[in-house]
């Protein structure tokens, strides 16, 4: 993308808005980057801040949540320097949405509440309602996430909080000035009411949301409501009505390109038909659901690639025009350092506990909601203190670094090796059954024992003990990790330098031999 020499920051941002409305996210990103650079060069803080917020939103559109989070963090000092509390409220609200998508709910709540309080202090009813509605939506998301994990009591608390927030916002007559907000408020409230079984209230609220959507020409909001209304009819025992509502919602979703909404309605219809004994129809809906999921992921990946490509082209154009080259380089370096600090262990280069915990939660959710296999291995270096005491901590650090390299060599791209702390490491094996995970770990153990550690220090020998657990066997990710840790200590108690998995433990308890060390390849 060439940069027009007469283009101003405001003009570039206007072109970005037009491109985004036309669903050309790559072009919109290019214009937003130009607006950001031009505004910085001209000292237009307000436009630069708007460009940062827009870029964060575009990152969110292509599911680049880390990119969105980084862009919003980059925008925070601009908002502070500008001294515009309204823009700061918008920034915190947007940051809350991104963190909610990353399942960091508690931090998300804090930012939405901060945004809402700032709006109240400014007597800005519009911003207050938007932030409050997003807060309600995050509690609804949290409730569904907790229910998927089997934490029903906690889920009901989250749903109750969502209901309380939405109900209070509806008392504010100003919400009717924004039909989109009025529609969304009732949609959130209706969904939360349905989740707690207050179906009659939920139905009336969702009907009111539908009426506003139709009157305002926002038919794209109907499919999501249709899913909750179909669930209500199903709960009432009105199977035919539930089927009709879901089919109507699915048709609307198809007409408006709402792939995710369409997929969720297919999944509902599949479960409905399966329960009704219509297995052929259920299978057809399941197939369409999975096809749409794949199409959605593929489309998002394609859009993300296009956005990244246009970002590179635009940055090169800016560099060639000698605009903002130094600033872009410094920001890139700073962002990389922040990312490394936030997500990577500095000694080994592996993921740290923050990234590990997020991956564990994601994998456990997948085992619960979609039946995807996921195993976790906890690994500890045997007698590591003696290595430090005999050879020095510097040698100990080299051992940790080499072990990390061996760990990486036994992992696929979708697996996550991480340093848990000290001499303890964790590997998350995504999509791998327990027996296969144990086989990989045995190969890893042998590889560690066989490596020539004397290249680091004379007569140095390193072995490891490993515990392996499948997350599907645990109510949540952290208890699964604790179970792997318990098996690790069993391996140590049994003499160290061995792998013990839940399967090994179960077989031993009924008198069978440990699992066979059969070859495993990806």
Draw up the topology in text.
Elements: H1 9-21, H2 25-42, H3 45-61, H4 65-82, H5 85-101, H6 105-121, H7 125-148, H8 152-170, H9 179-195, H10 199-215, H11 222-236, H12 239-255, H13 259-275, H14 279-320, H15 325-343, H16 353-369, E1 374-381, H17 384-391, H18 393-409, E2 416-421, E3 424-430, H19 434-450, E4 464-470, H20 477-493, E5 499-501, H21 502-509
Parallel strand pairs: 4-5
Antiparallel strand pairs: 1-3, 1-4, 2-3
Written account of the structure:
By secondary structure, the protein is mainly alpha-helical. Among the domains are: 85-217, Tetratricopeptide repeat domain (Serine Threonine Protein Phosphatase 5, Tetratricopeptide repeat), CATH 1.25.40.10; 344-509, Reverse transcriptase/Diguanylate cyclase domain (Alpha-Beta Plaits). 71% of the residues lie in helices and 6% in strands. The protein contains 21 helices and 5 strands. It has helices spanning 9-21, 25-42, 45-61, 65-82, 85-101, 105-121, 125-148, 152-170, 179-195, 199-215, 222-236, 239-255, 259-275, 279-320, 325-343, 353-369, 384-391, 393-409, 434-450, 477-493, 502-509; strands at residues 374-381, 416-421, 424-430, 464-470, 499-501. A 5-stranded mixed sheet has the order 2-3-1-4-5, with helices on both faces. Helix 11 runs parallel beside helix 13 (259-275).
Characteristics:
mainly alpha, 71% helix, Serine Threonine Protein Phosphatase 5, Tetratricopeptide repeat, 5-stranded mixed beta sheet, 522 residues, Alpha-Beta Plaits
């Amino acid at each position: 993308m060439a940069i027009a020499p007469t283009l101003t920051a405001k003009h570039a941002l206007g072109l970005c808005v037009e491109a985004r409305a036309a669903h050309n996210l790559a072009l919109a990103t290019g214009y937003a980057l130009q607006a950001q650079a031009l505004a910085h060069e001209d000292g237009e803080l307000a436009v630069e801040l708007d460009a940062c917020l827009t870029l964060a939103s575009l990152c969110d559109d292509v599911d680049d949540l880390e990119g969105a989070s980084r862009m919003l963090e980059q925008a925070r000092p601009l908002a502070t320097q500008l001294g515009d509390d309204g823009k700061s409220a918008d920034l915190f609200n947007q940051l809350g949405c991104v963190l909610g998508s990353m399942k960091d709910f508690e931090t998300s709540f804090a930012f939405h509440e901060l945004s809402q309080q700032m709006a109240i202090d400014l007597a800005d009813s519009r911003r207050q309602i938007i932030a409050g509605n997003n807060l309600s939506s995050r509690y609804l998301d949290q409730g569904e996430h907790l229910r998927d994990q089997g934490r029903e009591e906690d889920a009901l608390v989250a749903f109750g909080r969502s209901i309380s927030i939405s109900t209070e916002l509806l008392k504010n007559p100003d919400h009717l000035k924004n039909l989109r907000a009025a529609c969304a408020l009732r949609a959130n409230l209706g969904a939360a009411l349905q989740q707690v079984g207050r179906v009659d209230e939920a139905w009336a609220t969702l009907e009111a949301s539908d009426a506003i959507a139709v009157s305002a020409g926002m038919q794209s909001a109907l499919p999501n409501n249709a899913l909750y209304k179909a669930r209500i009819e199903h709960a009432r025992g009105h199977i035919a009505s539930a089927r009709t509502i879901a089919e109507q919602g699915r048709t609307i979703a198809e007409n408006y390109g709402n792939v995710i909404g369409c997929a969720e309605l297919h999944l509902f219809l599949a479960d409905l038909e399966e329960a009704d004994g219509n297995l052929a129809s259920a299978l057809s809906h399941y197939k369409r659901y999975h096809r749409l999921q794949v199409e959605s992921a593929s489309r998002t990946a394609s859009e993300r690639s296009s956005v990244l490509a246009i970002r590179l082209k635009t940055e090169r154009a800016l560099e060639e025009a000698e605009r903002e080259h130094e600033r872009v380089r410094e920001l890139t370096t700073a962002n990389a350092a922040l990312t490394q600090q936030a997500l990577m262990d500095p000694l080994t280069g592996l993921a740290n506990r923050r990234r590990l915990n997020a991956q564990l939660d994601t994998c456990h959710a997948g085992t619960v909601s979609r039946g995807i296999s996921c195993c976790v291995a906890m690994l500890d270096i045997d007698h590591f203190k003696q290595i430090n005491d005999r050879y020095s901590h510097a040698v100990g650090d080299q051992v940790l670094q080499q072990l990390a390299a061996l760990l990486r060599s036994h992992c696929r791209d979708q697996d996550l090796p991480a340093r848990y702390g000290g001499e303890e490491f964790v590997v998350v094996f995504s999509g791998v059954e327990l027996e296969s995970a144990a086989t990989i770990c045995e190969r890893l153990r042998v590889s560690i024992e066989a490596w020539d550690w004397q290249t680091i220090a004379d007569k140095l020998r390193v072995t490891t003990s490993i515990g392996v657990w499948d997350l599907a066997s645990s109510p949540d990710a952290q208890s699964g990790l604790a179970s792997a840790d318990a098996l690790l200590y069993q391996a140590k108690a049994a003499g160290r330098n061995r792998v013990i998995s839940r399967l090994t433990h179960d077989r031993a308890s009924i008198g069978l031999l440990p699992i066979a060390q059969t070859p495993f390849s990806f």
